[in-house]
Design goal:
heterotrimer; A mainly alpha; B mainly alpha; C alpha/beta; A: MetI-like fold; B: MetI-like fold
């Protein structure tokens, strides 16, 4: 009956008819101010870097990106971020679950610890990691001598710093959804004889997939661009522990504009597509929920 | 966003569980607690210990250097300005996102989150391309004798870019939630647009507004990559607190670096936790 | 007059949520707008308050045309369903808000605020915050806030809708006495019939954006003008019969013409309405003491507190069609709903399955029966399109619909009709289903012999089947709507007044239909290039202007176009280049001959259009008794 779906919107919606909001200086004035602000602050800088990086065309950009040091930096950034995202998704999801579904004496403390990384400057985060695990420090040297593990000034340090910084994202994306989830559905499944694991897999998990995904993607996006913590933790050894952001800084300082712009564009492209995708995911979940 | 439970939920939590279920529950709690303790608590503690290696005196001595004080003042000055700009324009943008309709709004709405994901180094570099020695605006700027790159204006711009989403993302849901009903009621009572905004709408946004301001402020305090690139970290001129830490590390003045980092971290922490409390009380 | 609305129209996404509403509310009157959700009643309040702007029409408050004034300047007191109290102000600040804006001095302000809180029974609660009050108290604050600054009119948008039953009744009484005390002109919007009856001086009933009928509660209940209002308010027994100069006839049963009906004309269809309390039940016809309908069997009983409710099943009466209560599928029995007082019930106790004689104490006759549509379906895709569009027009026009399934009887047809019933379902005045396995034209002919129809709707492409259209037109006395493909309800109508003679009637019937759709109309005339004489042009323009005027009386916005050239290509060009979605043409029907031919310009145009709905107006209907095209009915 496709013909019926063509009918104009039933006037049920009239209760919420769009009332013209009474804006202080009229809709147009406010809109112009807002758009100008966003254009100056956001769009012009991005356009400029695009123009700069594409000066020698896509081929030139590609050449700069595939120079061995740049290429390695990008690869390192991507794989450390991906590995971090995997761990963060699992641990963040578990943390949210524990915080919502269990009650234990230090729950409030745990809950406020989750927000700490948001408040601490990332440079300070990097510093903390070095103080704890650096090769000259107690824990770090013990690990190095007994397990042969070097964390700081090596890729594992990058992952650890990123885990710290992005820890709140997954937890805070999952927690509200889990809180709103009707316990009654799980109870209903239990009365129908479903076991704990079945309930989790069939009832609890499906609505959490979207928030888990958007939390994970946000972590990943944030990790790709991270600089403050990494520049201190990673040691920045080209072809070993130098990430893309640090590489860009090096190229800027050595005045290789083309190289800096090319890698920047790649990073912006990744960030942009991730952010827009998460935005789409979230608007979808809002609509269906 | 908090983990507090209603009475009803608490009653549910006290339901009978099997012995295995209880064990698995405590195992989960243990794993998560250990993870958080090792990942977050341990580094923080080690920083505190590191800073106090020479006792409280060492920390105070480290903080009481002219360079450090100047860097802190510079940081606060930049942050206050950034907060002021976002307070006005962020509110306007949030308003437009919620109340206005035009083509392309969805896309622009998505773009606002970009500063969240774009590397601060890239942000600083973009501004260099605009305002640097060979930048797009270089001729204009040199004609007017204005310095933006390697000076405070550039650092303010960089911080503005980086902190753009916070105010908007705090206000949009509050504004959406508030709806237009009370504004309509004010209109039927004869109130003009401005009056309605100040007397009716703004009081409802107040808490979101304050929270947005604090987040912006905290983020501004801790900004590093972008101000490093555009500001250059010139000692005594464009050095902020984070840039000072960086320099202190390179010069191997560890106690200084740790102390400033501790103070900076503590400061942002108190800010965010304070507004968190404020939010929970309402 | 305190509130005057003139031809108010508001469209939303092209769909008229308020459709040509005109209304006058007297000074000090308590007027209730009653309608189901989505009928447009709240939108009318928003229009009066200026919270949304009208697309067409005027709003006059106390002789002040406020149509283009902003809300702030209209001086209306508005009470919202969800209170809309300012959450961050105290009760006192809320109430004083309007006075603050008028810059009333502080002392005076406090005095008036206290008076207002006293009036709504909340004296002493001024320091509370809104969220510390109960729902009923919050709504009292909202009322005080709306009244305190002395608005010209008071508008209440389902103010009691969110409250508990008991509080609702308390606040209702309170509201009514406050309104009387202040004498403020009030419009109150609700979907609750009981509330409307309890409060109103007059009620306006709304449906699908149109103000169907206005009257006192008693008038609307006892003597409604329309079938919609008759069945919307309370329980109704509705039967279709005939009225003659002497009596109202239900088959062989003769009833005296009720005194309020002025009818001296010839015989015509009429709907007979009687309420459950007007039904008499007795063991013998003699004991009824009123005209009898027949002997019925008790099918349902229920205890309703102060009264006993019964439903009785009567044998079919020849020539009488029941509309409400609707008989079961495939049944011709007549159902009658009755109520009795406990005293009556104890005098003549009735159990399920027992029989009783059924009579009518008092009844009312609806002389203007609504439109009646026949939708023909054979289960094909085109038929689906006809069903969708026909159903939608029928809903908007409150038409009764008969669904005629044509084709081999069988499970497939059964399923299809079941599905179609569901699809047409709600919002129709009545829906009846028939089947036939004769060819379409013959099936239509049989159906129209049994009952007259104003409009027949068929999913048909003329390009392929002009002959079939001709045959159908020949089958009876109706207009024909052809739907070749699925399309939404028309918003732009092109009326071709080209073919000269039938012009005027095309315009009028199209106007009747388009009015219900809330669509706009364009009148087109094509002049031969040869006839470029100035006189001819002026004459044509005058003719078209007359059409526009007739349409505007009906509330249809219209414009005119005159084109020069050869008729067929000019019309096709106009249709193709602009976004018309309904084409109206007059059928050039020979008056004497029964042979109908769609030839000439009409045939040429019709066979060239593949995807537009076409309404073929039977021009000679002006001569018949059909109320659709009678000028008197139009003027109403």
């Amino acid at each position: 009956m496709t013909a019926l779906t063509n009918q104009p919107q039933k006037p049920e919606a009239t209760a919420g008819l769009p009332m013209r909001p009474s804006l202080p200086w009229g809709t147009w004035g406010v809109r112009t101010v807002a758009l100008t602000y966003l254009t100056v602050l956001l769009i012009i800088p991005i356009l400029v870097i695009l123009q700069d990086g594409l000066r020698e065309g896509l081929g030139g950009l590609w050449h700069q990106v595939t120079l061995p040091i740049a290429w390695h930096a990008l690869k390192l950034t991507l794989w450390t971020s991906a590995l971090m995202t995997l761990v963060n998704t699992i641990m963040g999801g578990l943390t949210a679950y524990v915080l919502v579904r269990y009650s234990f004496p230090w729950k409030m403390l745990l809950n406020s610890l989750v927000d700490l990384p948001l408040a601490i400057p990332t440079l300070v985060t990097g510093l903390m990691m070095v103080v704890l695990l650096g090769p000259q420090e107690a824990v770090g040297s013990w690990l190095k001598e007994n397990l042969g593990l070097s964390i700081i000034f090596a890729p594992p340090g990058i992952i650890l710093a990123l885990l710290f910084i992005t820890f709140p994202f997954v937890v805070r994306a999952v927690q509200p959804v889990l809180l709103n989830l009707e316990r009654a559905q799980e109870d209903a499944a239990a009365t129908l004889g479903a076991g704990g694991w079945t309930i989790f897999r069939r009832i609890t998990l499906p609505p959490l997939v979207l928030p888990l995904a958007s939390g994970a993607l946000l972590s990943f996006a944030r990790a790709i661009g991270e600089f403050g913590a990494i520049v201190i933790v990673a040691g920045n050894i080209p072809l070993y522990s130098q990430t893309a952001a640090v590489y860009v800084l090096g190229e800027v300082e050595s005045e290789n504009r083309l190289g800096a712009s090319a890698v920047s564009i790649v990073m912006i492209a990744i960030a942009l597509s991730l952010v827009l995708f998460v935005d789409w995911l979230q608007s979808r979940s809002r609509r269906s929920g | 966003m908090n983990g507090s439970l209603s009475v009803k939920d608490r009653i549910k939590l006290s339901r009978p569980r099997s012995a295995v279920g209880v064990l698995a529950g405590w195992l989960l709690i243990g794993v998560v607690s250990l993870y958080v303790a090792l990942l977050i608590l341990a580094p923080i503690m080690s920083l505190v210990v590191g800073a106090f290696e020479e006792g409280l005196g060492g920390v105070l001595r480290a903080l009481n250097q002219p360079d450090v004080l100047a860097a802190f003042w510079r940081t606060i000055w930049i942050s206050v300005l950034v907060v002021a700009v976002h307070a006005v324009f962020g509110t306007i943008v949030a308003w437009v996102f919620v109340r206005d309709r035009f083509r392309g709004k969805g896309l622009i709405n998505g773009l606002v989150d970009i500063p969240f994901a774009v590397s601060p180094v890239v942000v600083g570099y973009m501004l260099l391309l605009l305002f640097g020695r060979n930048g797009l605006f270089a001729p204009v700027l040199s004609a007017l004798n204005i310095r933006v790159a390697f000076a405070l204006p550039g650092m303010i711009l960089a911080t503005l870019f980086v902190t753009l989403p916070f105010m908007i993302r705090e206000l949009v849901p509050v504004l959406e939630n508030f709806g237009t009903l009370q504004e309509q009621a004010a209109a039927t009572l004869g109130a003009s647009g401005w009056l309605t905004f100040w007397k009716v709408t703004f009081p409802a946004l107040r808490h979101g507004f304050i929270y947005g301001l604090t987040l912006t402020f905290a983020r501004s305090l801790g900004e590093f990559g972008a101000v490093l690139v555009i500001g250059g970290g010139i000692q005594g001129k464009t050095e902020t607190a984070t840039l000072y830490i960086y320099r202190a590390l390179e010069e191997r003045q560890y106690i200084s670096a740790y102390s400033v980092a501790l103070l900076l971290g503590l400061f942002s922490l108190l800010l965010v936790m304070g507004t968190d409390l404020l939010k929970k009380r309402n | 007059m305190s509130i005057v609305l003139e031809q108010l129209t508001k469209r939303y996404d092209g769909y008229p949520v308020v459709n040509n509403v005109s209304l006058e509310v007297k000074d000090g009157e308590f007027f209730v707008l009653l309608g189901s959700s989505g009928s447009g009643k709240s939108t009318i309040l928003n229009l009066i308050a200026g919270l949304t702007s009208a697309d067409h029409g005027q709003i006059i408050l106390h002789n002040r045309n406020v149509t283009h004034l902003p809300t702030q300047k209209r001086r209306v007191g508005f009470v919202f369903q969800n209170y809309a109290l300012f959450q961050y102000m105290t009760v006192a600040e809320n109430v004083e808000f309007g006075l603050t804006i008028q810059k009333v001095a502080s002392l005076e302000r406090q005095k008036r605020r206290d008076e207002a809180l006293e009036l709504v029974g909340l004296a002493g609660l001024g320091n509370r915050m809104p969220r510390q009050l109960s729902g009923g108290q919050q709504q009292r604050v909202a009322l005080a806030r709306a009244l305190v600054y002395g608005p010209d009119v008071l508008l209440l948008d389902e103010p009691l809708g969110a409250l508990d039953a008991k509080i609702r009744i308390d606040l209702r009484r309170n509201l009514r006495s406050i309104q009387r005390q202040l004498g403020i002109t009030t419009i109150f919007v609700t979907h609750d019939q009981e509330e409307a009856f309890d409060l109103a001086d007059r009620i306006g009933v709304m449906s699908f954006g149109r103000l169907i009928e206005v009257g006192t509660p008693e008038e609307l209940y006892q003597r409604p003008q329309t079938e919609f209002v008759a069945s919307f308010l309370g329980t109704a027994n509705l039967l279709v019969g005939n009225i003659t100069a002497q009596s109202v006839e239900l088959g062989p049963i003769r009833l005296p013409i009720p005194p309020e009906i002025q009818h001296a004309g010839s015989e015509r269809r009429v709907q007979v309405l009687f309420r459950p309390e007007d039904v008499a039940l007795a063991p013998t016809p003699a004991e009824l003491n009123c005209p009898e309908l027949g002997r019925g069997e008790v099918e349902e009983t229920s205890f309703g507190g102060a009264q006993e409710r019964l439903r009785l099943r009567l044998a079919p009466i020849a020539g009488v069609r029941p509309i409400a209560p609707l008989p079961g599928f495939g049944s011709a029995n007549i159902l009658v709903d009755a109520t009795r007082s406990p005293e009556q019930a104890s005098r003549f106790p009735l159990q399920l399955g027992e029989a009783a004689w059924v009579g009518v104490h008092r009844f009312h006759a609806l002389v203007h029966p609504g439109l009646s549509f026949l939708i023909v379906t054979d289960g094909s895709l085109r038929a689906q399109a006809a069903l969708a569009l026909g159903g939608q027009i029928a809903r908007l026009a409150h038409a009764r619909v008969t669904l005629l399934g044509v084709g081999p009887n069988g499970q497939a047809m059964e399923n299809h009709l079941q599905e179609a019933r569901k699809q047409l379902g709600s919002g129709l005045a009545a829906l009846e289903v028939q089947t036939s396995n004769s060819p379409i034209a013959a099936a239509v002919a049989t159906a129209t012999e049994q009952a007259p129809y104003d409009l027949v709707i068929i999913g048909l492409s003329l390009q392929e089947n002009l002959a079939l259209a001709e045959q159908v037109l020949q089958a009876g006395d109706f207009h024909l709507l052809l739907v070749p493909s699925p399309q939404p309800a028309p918003t732009q109508t092109l009326i071709c007044a080209t073919s000269g003679e039938p012009g005027k009637e095309d315009v009028l019937f199209a106007g009747r239909l388009v009015r219900h759709l809330g669509a706009e109309a364009t009148l087109l005339c094509v002049l031969p290039v040869a006839a470029k004489t100035p006189g001819r042009l002026e004459q044509t323009q005058r003719f078209l202007d007359g059409g526009v005027q007739s349409l505007s009386i009906l509330g249809v916005p219209a414009k005119t176009i005159i084109r020069n050239g050869s008729a067929t290509p000019e019309i096709l060009d106009e249709v193709k280049n602009k976004g018309y979605d309904l084409l109206v043409m007059g059928a050039p029907l020979a008056r004497q001959s029964s042979e109908i031919k769609l030839d000439g310009v009409v045939g040429e145009v019709l066979t060239s259009l593949t995807d537009k709905a076409v309404l073929i107006v039977r021009s000679h209907l002006i001569q018949s008794k059909n109320p659709l095209t009678q000028p008197k009915a139009l003027a109403k």
